């Protein structure tokens, strides 16, 4: 695990950004791995949907960790896995530490930890409170002897407080975060300014209008996540296929489906 943790940390470079096509179950993780991924990341939304729950701290810790362990087992042992653990699956820093111990037991070497309070409609957590949660996560990892990559998610662009972004990033880094994840921003000038101001690897979330990876590298981005976008696209395909079958009675939507034999062999 120590080797995987070090490898994962080293993958964060603005000269060659780490691109993460986020998986949501064992099959999607194995498909992404087979495509040449240097690391596997989970999407909390995709995982929640797979397990029959909405995104936004609706899952229990045990359900999330059991699913994470299944994903880790599905990919090559040398491949680092990082887990999106939402806001930590706990009300207190001590509960966050419990989650981290479970993440490490599952075999993951990185996490995303967001600063939105628990609940999909909640606001930003107070900076000091989030620092305590990050410090608890770092402490639990240190106790286990693992250099856990803590990707501190700063939800200021989602919550209407972009002016707080850099200050929050600095506070989270001081508390023990490794990198900073700022979702919700696609403008090249804004991304460049954030990369310059934040003294740690910057992670952005791909969305409509996000520059290509090569351009993001030039802007100083070290990590690019596709987030729940791939899962959303997969479910959109299922919806199109269902609508076509129930209306036209045809199946053209499925013309480009993954070959059954290839996928089944991949999962063997």
From TrEMBL:
Query: Looking at the keywords, is Lyase present?
Result: yes
Top-level lineage group: Bacteria
Instruction: Name the SUPFAM superfamilies on file.
Output: Phosphoenolpyruvate/pyruvate domain (SSF51621)
Query: Keyword Heme: yes or no?
Result: no
The record's annotation in CDD domains points to:
ICL_PEPM
Q: What is a GO molecular function of this protein?
A: lyase activity
Q: Could you list this entry's UniProt keywords, alphabetically sorted.
A: Lyase
User: What is the name listed in the Swiss-Prot or TrEMBL entry for this protein?
Assistant: Isocitrate lyase/phosphoenolpyruvate mutase family protein
Q: Which organism encodes this protein?
A: Dactylosporangium darangshiense
């Amino acid at each position: 695990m120590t080797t995987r943790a070090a490898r994962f940390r080293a993958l964060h470079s603005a000269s060659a950004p780490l691109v993460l096509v986020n998986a949501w179950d064992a099959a999607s993780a194995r498909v992404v791995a087979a495509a040449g991924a240097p690391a596997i990341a989970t999407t909390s939304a995709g995982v929640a949907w797979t397990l029959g729950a909405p995104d936004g701290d609706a899952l229990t810790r045990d359900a999330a960790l059991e699913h994470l362990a299944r994903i880790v087992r599905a990919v090559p042992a040398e491949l680092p896995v990082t887990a999106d653990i939402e806001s930590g699956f706990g009300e207190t820093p001590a509960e966050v530490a419990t989650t981290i111990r479970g993440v490490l037991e599952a075999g993951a070497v990185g996490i995303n930890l967001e600063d939105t309070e628990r609940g999909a409609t909640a606001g930003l957590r107070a900076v000091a409170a989030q620092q305590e949660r990050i410090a608890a996560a770092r402490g639990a990892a240190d106790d286990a002897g693992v250099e856990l990559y803590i990707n501190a998610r700063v939800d200021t662009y989602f919550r209407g407080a972009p002016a707080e972004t850099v200050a929050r990033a600095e506070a989270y880094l001081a508390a023990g975060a490794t990198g900073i994840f700022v979702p919700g921003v696609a403008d090249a000038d804004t991304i460049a300014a954030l990369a310059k101001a934040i003294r740690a690897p910057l992670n952005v979330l791909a969305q409509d209008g996000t520059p290509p990876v090569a351009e993001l590298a030039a802007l100083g981005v070290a990590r690019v996540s596709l987030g729940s976008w791939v899962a959303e696209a997969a479910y959109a395909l299922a919806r199109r296929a269902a609508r076509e079958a129930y209306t036209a009675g045809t199946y053209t939507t499925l013309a480009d489906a993954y070959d059954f034999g290839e996928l089944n062999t991949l999962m063997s």
